[in-house]
Amino acid sequence: MPKTKVLHIIDSLTIGGAEKLLVATINNLPELENHLIYLNGSDALLPQLNVHCKVFKLNMRRKIGFLKTVFVVRRYIKKHGISIVHSHLCLATVIARLACPSNVQLFSTIHNLPSKSYFKKSRVLKWLEKLSYRSRHHIIAICKEVFNDYNKSIGVKGSYTILYNFVEDKFFQPSFKPMSYNGTMRLVAVGNLKYQKNYPYLIEVFKGLPRSIHLDIYGSGEMASQLQAEIDHYKLNIKLCGTRHDMEKVLMNYDALIMSSHYEGQPLAVLEAMASGIPVILSDIPVLHEVTNSKAIFFDINDSSDLVKKLKALANHEVDLDIIAADNFERARHIAKKENYLASLKNMYAYVGTQKAPETYIAAGNAIATRIQPSIS
C-alpha cells in the first residue's frame, strides 16, 4: 500500500518550540511520506531531520515574494500528489491555505496566543488569516488558552482539536528529583532571547538576590548583547549559555526551571523540565497555570520583589519543592507522552477522505477536546 503523502509547512527551522515539535513529529512518523517546506530563515534544526523526509527551502524573502510563494507551494502539492497539508505558525498557515486545493485536507497548528504574538505585530497578518480561513480547514490548538484566544481573535468556523505538545522520551526520568541543594541554588531558564520571554525582569530580580542563587539561561536571540551588558554591569549571578541540543542532560544539573514570559503557547521548555523531574517556577499567566494544572511556584511579572521574596524562601528551604516537583512530574506523564500525541495526530490524518461518524473520531491521549464536521469536503 502506498504511503500517505503529507506536506508540512513552517516559517523556518530555527530552534524554537514549534520547530522542535514539528521535527520530532516528522521523525516519529516514518510510515508516512513526509515532505517539508520552510519559507526562509535558520536551518538550525535541519540536521536533526530523518533522511526519509523530502525538504524544500523557499528562501521566500530573497528570491520570491508572497504571491509567488503561494503558487510555488500549490505546484508542489499537485506535482507530488500531496493528500494532507499540515501548517505551523501564522505566515506559513496563510500561504498553505491560499495554496491548498479544496480536495486536499489542511491542518493548521496554532502554537502561540495570536492576539499577543502574530496579530499584535501585524494587522495585515490578522486580515490575511481571516481572509484565508475556511470551515473545511482543521484547527489544532496546543492548549485551551491558545484555542480560546484564536477563537476570540478570528472565530473558529469548523473542526478543531486541542492537542497538548509532547516531550521526547529521553527527557522522562524514572521519578522526580528531590530537593538536594544546600547553600547554593541553581536555576535554569530555556528560551530564545526575545521580548516574549521577559528576561529583563529576571535581571531586575537578581539585583536583589544573594550570591548563593545562580541562573543559567539557554537560548539565543536579538537581546543577547543587551542582556549581557546588564549582567556585566551589575555583576549578576547569571550566565548566558547559548544553545544546546542535549537539554535532557543539561536540565538534571539544576534545582528548578524558571520562566518569566509575558505570554506563552504551551512551552516545551516547561514540559521538558517537568518530565525531567525538576520543579518549575513560572510567571502568573493563565497558560502556565493550564500546563501545570496550577501546581507550580507562580510570581507576579509586574513586581520583581515578589519573585525575590519567593526565591529567598525557596533557597532557605521554607517551601517544600518536592511537592511541586512530584506534581509537575506526574502532570507531564499525563499530558505530554509522545505515543499519545502521535496516536491523536494519526487519528486526525486517517479521517481524511472517509465518511466516519463524528463519534468514531476521538483523538487519544494528549488531545483534550475535539469537534469535527460530519464529513470533510
Characteristic key phrases:
alpha/beta, 8-stranded mixed β-sheet, disordered C terminus, 6-stranded parallel β-sheet, globular, about 40% helix, 2 domains, 15 helices, Rossmann fold
Explain the overall architecture.
By secondary structure, this protein is of the alpha/beta class. It has two domains: 197 residues, Glycogen Phosphorylase B (Rossmann fold, 3-Layer(aba) Sandwich), CATH 3.40.50; 167 residues, Glycogen Phosphorylase B (Rossmann fold, 3-Layer(aba) Sandwich), CATH 3.40.50. The protein has 15 helices and 14 strands. The strands form two sheets. The chain has an eight-stranded mixed beta sheet with strand order 3-2-1-4-5-6-7-14, with helices on both faces. The chain has a six-stranded parallel beta sheet with strand order 10-9-8-11-12-13, with helices on both faces. Helix 11 links the parallel strand 11 and strand 12. The radius of gyration is 21 Å and the shape is globular.
Concise account of the structure shown:
The protein is α/β, with parallel strands linked by helices. It contains 15 helices and 14 strands.
Overall radius of gyration:
21 Å
Strand proportion, as a percent range, falls in 15-25%
Instruction: Name the shape in a single word.
Output: globular
Terminal CA distance reads 24 Å
Write the H/E string, N to C.
EHEEHHEHEHHEHEEHEHEHEHEHEHHHE
Q: Assign a percent range to the helix content.
A: 25-40%
In CATH terms, what is the architecture of the largest domain?
A: 3-Layer(aba) Sandwich
CATH superfamily of the largest domain: Glycogen Phosphorylase B
Mean pLDDT: 91
Low-confidence stretches: 355-365, 373-377
Question: How do the strands line up in the largest sheet?
Answer: 3-2-1-4-5-6-7-14
Helix-strand makeup class: alpha/beta
Count of discrete domains? 2
